[in-house]
Amino acid sequence: MGRDKALLDWHGQTLLDHMVNLLSAVTDPVRVVGRGSLPDHPPSGRGPLSGVITALNASETDANLVVAVDLPLLTCDFLKYVRSRLERTDQRILACKIGSYFPLCLGVRRGLLPELQRRLTDGDLSVHRFIESLDAEVIQEAELSEAGFDISIFRNINTPEDYRSILYT
Predict the structure, then answer these.
(1) Which of 18, 31, 61, 86 could form a disulfide with 107 if both were Cys (CB 3.0 to 4.6 A apart)?
(2) What is the pLDDT tens value at each position of the chain, 169 positions in all?
(3) What is the CATH number of the domain that holds 36?
(4) CA 12 to chain centre
(5) Cis before residue 42, ω within 30 degrees of 0?
(6) CA torsion 104→25→76→86, rounded to 10°?
(7) Rounded alpha-carbon distances, angstroms, from residue 77 to 51, 74, 86, 89, 147
(8) Closest by CA position to 167, among listed 4, 2, 3, 5
(9) What are the residues facing 96 on neighbouring strands?
(10) Is the separation of the CB atoms in 124 and 71 below 8 Å?
(11) In 3-state terms, what secondary structure has residue 90?
């Protein structure tokens, strides 16, 4: 992207503020990993698993929503759906599978922290492999469609072209 995605303008506010406001409508408290009082530990550059570990270390609850800042098309209704599914499942992780990938919009139980830390120590930084290695509850595209969600909500911002395209959606 060439710049901090979190500070991109999203209809008059930063992308970060947009995501915090969206999540605040669904859960409390909302913590932002990788900034201010909650820097990634271990330091960033180790990928999203590092951020998930930081989030779980800071959490005081068993069930947690972990969402990337670059998914601005997620909706409050969708996040409520994910939260409800996480509250009902016995699985330690809840993920949506879009095509062959898992967007970084996860329900994660705090008890996964030791396994995540082991993976990071071993250098296995793949969120995809981590999800597939567990008995995860995976919500498939068809199920999302049946629940009334368009998979376009998972479009993310990786390039300036993505940003321009999504901003005017």
Answers:
(1) 86
(2) 788 899 999 999 999 999 999 999 999 999 988 877 666 665 556 678 888 998 999 999 999 999 999 999 999 999 999 999 999 999 999 999 999 999 999 999 999 999 999 998 898 889 999 999 988 999 999 999 999 999 999 999 999 999 999 988 7
(3) 3.90.550.10
(4) 23
(5) yes
(6) 60
(7) 24, 9, 14, 18, 10
(8) 5
(9) 139
(10) no
(11) coil
Q: What's the distance, CA 150 to chain centroid? A: 17
Specify the 3-state DSSP secondary structure of 14. Answer: strand
Report whether 116 contacts 87 (CB < 8 A): no
Amino acid present at 41: H
- Which H, E and C letters describe 31-89, residue by residue? CCCCECCECCCCCCCCCHHHHHHHHHHHCCCCEEEEECCCCCCCCHHHHHHHHHHHHHC
Q: What is the pLDDT of residue 46?
A: 65
Query: Can you name the residues that pair with 136 across neighbouring β-strands?
Result: none
Contact 68, 156 (CB under 8 A): yes
Give me the number of domains the chain comprises: 1
